[in-house]
């Protein structure tokens, strides 16, 4: 065991530490080693300076370092003697001097118990205790250490404890800058900031002379405008700031172009007041899936105070339906180009071909805007539409960086407690950075000690958590490729017992129940068709044949398939229950997408009889059949299908039509959840002949892979 004073027991004679009366300073052993490495490197550079240009790099390896004149007659404190122990021979590397461990804690005690106490106290104090309470906590811990005769004491102040544990290193890179309100020149606050700006503008004869400071209520001089900065990006020499600047799709697609075009349509009187009222009436009949915002009254109010989420719903869900009978044909068709591009770009998973297709839609849209409107309609924001392709190629799908998540995070700022002293920005930045790196700090401690018993206690102070587990189910390995093929191609054999992603099922399941006799007959028929076995009998005939289908099922509140959540009609009030699935047409030559409403989602256990050919089912993956063990649990959605219509008049704007009545139930209503293709929105529509129909708007499929 070692005390704090014993940690600083190494004399350092480097240029930095020798600037005192003693000619040396006591530092930690690792600090002394770092200073010696730097001194040796500087000495080598000076000796080689005559033969090297200033721009050449000095390469130092772990070979023996010689100055060419080394002999036994003299020695220097910075030279390496031959009999020096191998432990003290340290590799000199420029990268090592510039890339130190951010969580290095040379001042921490070696005793793992003491390290745990120090780490726990600093994390606990930052999470639950204010400054004064932290001092009391430290005094209490030190008193306990004294009572138990430990030769270790925590620093008496919270900043001292943070320095010792490396906690303060997280926020030491925060810098505050003062900005001129006129010319925007930036001054670092730690340096001397003049009272007035001294920047001389191009062509001016005098400086800007804008006042930079003001007198606060307490009489102190404070900056009129300042901001905080903390980033490690300036250390990356390979970073291209131009290409590395991301175009935010949220602002670029949804807060720019739709609003500008709507203002233009109103100005050109393409949309009248009566049109807004009619569109609002139709919008009130629309059923929008979860994840999209319903526009209950914004359309009738001419889109006043619309947020990004609402503009997104307008573009993808409402506008293809509502603008059809309002805009001129050429302007509406051009708007659909923009809608089609957005449908592709907002997908969590997108292919390069889809990116290129979306780019072509945007290019056509911008070109036609130049022809249909005057040149003033084209803005820099619309020009950036054509650079979204490069952004997605470099940084991936838009869900990884668009600002929807950041905007929602603003709501959390309202609950952040401040001390009303140093300003909200600094308090928030310190708190945010500390919270981000708490997990790393705790993990660095756990990696440096064998005290695994400390893990549960420390993780309670961090944001990390262990996901709850659901009862294990014997399933084959989940294959994303097979799952995607099952929803896109109805020719792929899917029975319902294929594996799903681990997060598909809710953590809490409902109690088992019996299936209605009306629906049970369709489940029985489904198994006969899926397993090609007519020997299966009704559960009421179980005494006559062992090959029966049980009527016990387990209802699910929802099913989460790769981030896309589907619910039954009773669980969501229609939101999230309207879906589409593909079926083979009656002629077996074409594929048809049917729209339906999920009544409920359930699991059912069934094992086919041994005489069935499905005892060892074949899963066709990449055209190679693989023999797999049978999984008895099947996951289905009971779906009532709407009566289809062959009207293809609105196929261009991706709006389908069907009748608002359900087709008769049959075994096709029992659908494996693997075959659900996507969610849809619907709207009521009455033709000129007073025939009621339902408009169907297929929405982009969300798959978080």
Largest sheet: 6 strands, antiparallel, barrel
Based on Cα principal axes, name the global outline. Answer: globular
Total domain count: 6
The percent range for helix content is 25-40%
Main β-sheet, spatial strand arrangement: 12-13-16-17-20-19
Rg, alpha carbons: 35 Å
The average pLDDT is 77
State which percent range the strand residues make up: 15-25%
Number of strands: 20
Structural class estimated from helices and strands? alpha+beta
What oligomerization state is this entry in?
A: single chain
End-to-end separation: 50 Å
Uncertain spans: 1-6, 50-100, 464-475, 612-628
Q: How many H/I helical runs?
A: 20
Short description:
Residues 52-88 are annotated as: Disordered. By secondary structure, the protein is an alpha+beta fold. It has helices at 4-7, 29-48, 94-98, 112-128, 131-147, 158-165, 249-254, 257-267, 273-283, 308-322, 329-345, 352-372, 380-384, 388-395, 404-413, 424-447, 455-459, 480-488, 517-530, 569-572, and strands at 10-12, 25-27, 175-179, 186-188, 213-215, 221-223, 226-229, 512-514, 552-556, 558-561, 564-567, 578-584, 591-605, 618-621, 624-627, 633-644, 656-662, 670-672, 676-686, 692-698.
Q: Descriptors for this entry?
A:
single chain; 705 residues; alpha+beta; six-stranded antiparallel β-barrel; three-stranded antiparallel β-sheet; 20 helices
What would your notes on this structure say?
The protein folds into six domains: 9-42, no CATH class; 112-171, no CATH class; 175-230, no CATH class; 249-405, no CATH class; 416-459; 480-608 and 628-698, no CATH class. Helix content is 33%, strand content 16%. The chain has 20 helices and 20 strands. It has helices at residues 4-7, 29-48, 94-98, 112-128, 131-147, 158-165, 249-254, 257-267, 273-283, 308-322, 329-345, 352-372, 380-384, 388-395, 404-413, 424-447, 455-459, 480-488, 517-530, 569-572; strands at 10-12, 25-27, 175-179, 186-188, 213-215, 221-223, 226-229, 512-514, 552-556, 558-561, 564-567, 578-584, 591-605, 618-621, 624-627, 633-644, 656-662, 670-672, 676-686, 692-698. A hairpin with a 6-residue loop joins strand 12 (578-584) and strand 13 (591-605). The radius of gyration is 35 Å and the shape is globular. It starts with a helix and ends in a 7-residue tail after the last strand. Residues 1-6, 50-100, 464-475 and 612-628 have low confidence and may be disordered.
